[in-house]
């Protein structure tokens, strides 16, 4: 990123204008930009040959690329990064976009999950991209835990929270579990949970297991370990990634190879393999962040860009994130204020609810 900024500082005014015009035209149309087109757009009247020379220099610097022989230029990933960091002009939130988001989030009825699902639908609809919403973990104190055996390879953990919220989560228990070992595991947990959240219980259990390892039946101990794994990694409601607008991305894609890369992205998302990584993208502080192409592991396969912002609770703690993913030629100047406004609005609504 610093290398790109240094290159930007070294460009003269003509090169900078040519570069800016190429990128803005590409973001608008998605097509390579030729020298003849550029000569009609530049403030300074220069020949097409002069513009071609400037474009060749920008290509040598790694900012532009020629997708086909004798065709126009498109920005590289480094070029887009430099444009976003140094030349992007972020506009104010469009009044029409604001109205659509407000209308969707203004419906206060229903649970938090339903509200955040509507957030995803609103972001997808307004931006015509795919939206990502990472919902917050439920961090109320727990009142009761119970394990229920459904089959030899399936069990249910029932979590009752002090605010009345109830969650049922399916998981695969370790081999050899019996109703007795499940009751023992539940009794052990219920003795620890009073006045504690799931995260606090998890830390306490780790200490208790170390201190009382010999006292706990080996099968019950395995049961507890399995339960912890469910809460940490597989609980569908604890950290849920909502993906809306898949069709928007697929509609944007023409080539079979690009279509397959987009499908790969969504297969990854549907497996929720990278939920924690998605949240980590935002944890350097509040505000919108932009990731282009391979700049983050989550979306490197898709050749896409992600515009993401965390949202916070009343204590200014990051509890989730919202974002928009689309082709690298996203209209960043428009998308950034939409994502920023939505994240702030979600944080306020969740704070008001609590």
Automatic annotation (TrEMBL):
Q: Which domain of life is it from?
A: Bacteria
Per UniProt, residues of the Heat-inducible transcription repressor HrcA C-terminal domain are: 115-336
What Pfam families does the record point to?
HrcA, WHD_HrcA
Q: Which residues form the Winged helix-turn-helix transcription repressor HrcA DNA-binding domain?
A: 11-77
GO biological process: what's one of them? negative regulation of DNA-templated transcription
Q: Report the protein's function.
A: Negative regulator of class I heat shock genes (grpE-dnaK-dnaJ and groELS operons). Prevents heat-shock induction of these operons.
> What name does UniProt use for this protein?
Heat-inducible transcription repressor HrcA
Which taxonomic lineage does the organism of this UniProt entry have?
A: Bacteria, Pseudomonadati, Pseudomonadota, Alphaproteobacteria, Rhodobacterales
């Amino acid at each position: 990123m610093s290398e790109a900024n240094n290159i930007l500082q070294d460009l003269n005014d003509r090169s900078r204008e040519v570069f800016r015009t190429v990128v803005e035209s590409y973001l608008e149309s998605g097509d390579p930009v030729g020298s003849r087109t550029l000569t009609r757009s530049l403030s300074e009247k220069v020949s097409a040959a002069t513009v071609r020379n400037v474009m060749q220099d920008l290509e040598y610097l790694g900012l532009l690329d020629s997708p086909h022989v004798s065709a126009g230029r498109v920005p590289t990933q480094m070029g887009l990064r430099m444009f976003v960091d140094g030349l992007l002009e972020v506009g104010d939130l469009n009044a029409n976009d604001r109205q659509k988001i407000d209308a969707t989030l203004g419906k206060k009825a229903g649970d938090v999950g339903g509200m955040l699902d509507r957030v995803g639908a609103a972001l997808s609809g307004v931006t015509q991209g795919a939206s990502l919403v990472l919902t917050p973990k439920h961090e109320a104190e727990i009142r009761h835990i119970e394990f229920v055996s459904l089959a030899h390879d399936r069990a249910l953990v029932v979590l009752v929270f002090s605010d009345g919220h109830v969650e049922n989560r399916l998981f695969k228990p370790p081999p050899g579990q019996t109703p007795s070992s499940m009751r023992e595991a539940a009794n052990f947990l219920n003795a620890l949970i009073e006045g504690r959240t799931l995260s606090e219980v998890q830390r306490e259990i780790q200490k208790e297991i170390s201190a009382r390892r010999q006292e706990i039946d080996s099968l019950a101990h395995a049961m507890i370990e399995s339960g912890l794994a469910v809460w940490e990694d597989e609980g569908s409601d604890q950290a849920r990634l909502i993906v809306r607008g898949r069709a928007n991305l697929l509609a944007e894609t023409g080539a079979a190879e690009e279509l397959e890369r987009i499908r790969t992205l969504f297969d990854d998302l549907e497996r929720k393999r990278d939920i924690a990584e998605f949240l980590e993208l935002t944890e350097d502080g509040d505000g919108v962040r932009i990731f282009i192409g391979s700049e983050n592991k989550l979306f490197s396969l898709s050749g896409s860009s992600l515009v993401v912002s965390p949202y916070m609770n009343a204590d200014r703690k990051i509890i989730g994130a919202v974002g928009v993913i689309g082709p690298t030629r996203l209209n960043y100047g428009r998308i950034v204020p939409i994502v920023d406004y939505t994240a702030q609005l979600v944080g306020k609504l969740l704070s008001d609810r609590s």
